[in-house]
Specification:
The protein has 2 domains: 35 residues; 72 residues, no CATH class. Strand 5 and strand 6 form a beta hairpin. It contains 5 helices and 6 strands, in the order E-E-H-E-E-H-H-H-E-E-H. The protein is of the alpha+beta class. The strands form 2 sheets. The protein has a 4-stranded antiparallel sheet, with helices on both faces. The chain has a two-stranded antiparallel ribbon with strand order 1-2.
Amino acid sequence: MKKERRERVVVTNVFIAEDGQEFTTEGECRCHEQTIEEEKQHGIAERLPHFRYAPPITDDGVEYVWTYCETPEELNAVFVTYLCEEERSFYRSETIEEIPVPGWVVTASDDFGHGYIREAEKDLTDFLRFVNEVHRMMACGGEDEGIH
C-alpha cells in the first residue's frame, strides 16, 4: 500500500451583494439586491405626503394612493412601491417621465400590484369639488338632491 499526500484546490465563484451578503449564484445575488432596492424605495414612498381614497364608483379590491412627489426619484419610489414588477414592465421610462413633478400622482392597484400610475391634478380637483358639494349639502341638512 502506498500513501500520498495530495492538495486539491477548488475554485468557486462567489457573488457578493452591495450589502456584503454572499451568494453562490448570480441570480440569487441579483434577486437579493433587487429586494434591498425595493425596500429602500418603499421607505422613501412611505415618507412622502400621501393619503388613500377610493372614488365613489370604483372596483372592489382596488386601492387608490394619492402621493405628492417633488422629484423624479420620489416618483420612481412611488412607482416601485405600489405597482408589481410585471405591471412596471408595461410602463416604459418615457411614460413615467411624462408625469410632471412636483405634483400629485395617483396609483390604483389591486392586491397583486396590478394597476396604473398617472398624474392626479384633475382627479384631486374633482375630489375636492365632490367633498365641497357633500359638505354644502350636509350644512343644508341633506335637503339638496342626492342626500336621503
